[in-house]
Amino acid sequence: MKKSVLFTLITLIFSGLVMATPPKTAEAKFKTSAVCGMCKKRIERDLGVTKGVVESKLNLEDKVVTITYNPKKTSPDKLKAAISKIGYDADDVVADKNAHDALPDCCKKGNAMHKD
To answer: pLDDT per residue over 19-63, tens digit each?
Structure first.
């Protein structure tokens, strides 16, 4: 009887510790073709609804987006593809043409205001 009570108690304690462990996250950083505040808002907003993304922050000074994500739900390749579908380059992944063409003129590559 004492052994079963002790076993149950240990099991409950261990289960509580496992359940209290926060989900594991990873971080990815990609160089983008974003240049302005509108680009920043669009990328952060659209990545925010992407499956597995916990948080995204774009630094306009270096054009690098830092993404915190759940590696069980997405991957760096999927994140780069998501950025491309928003209309921006992500490292070696070129922006989706249709999405890029739909961006405001100030956000498009090749625009005189665009600082490449």
So the answer is: 555 568 999 999 999 999 999 999 999 999 999 999 999 999 999
Whether 9 is in a domain gets the answer no
- CATH number of the domain at 53, please: 3.30.70.100
Identify whether 5 is part of a domain. no
Domain count within the chain:
1
Radius of gyration of the chain (CA): 21
Residue 48: CA count within 13 A, CB half-sphere: 8
Write down the pTM of the prediction: 0.76
Mean pLDDT, rounded, for 78-92: 97
CB-based contacts of 87: which residues, under 8 Å, 6+ apart?
42, 95, 96, 99, 100, 101, 102, 103, 107
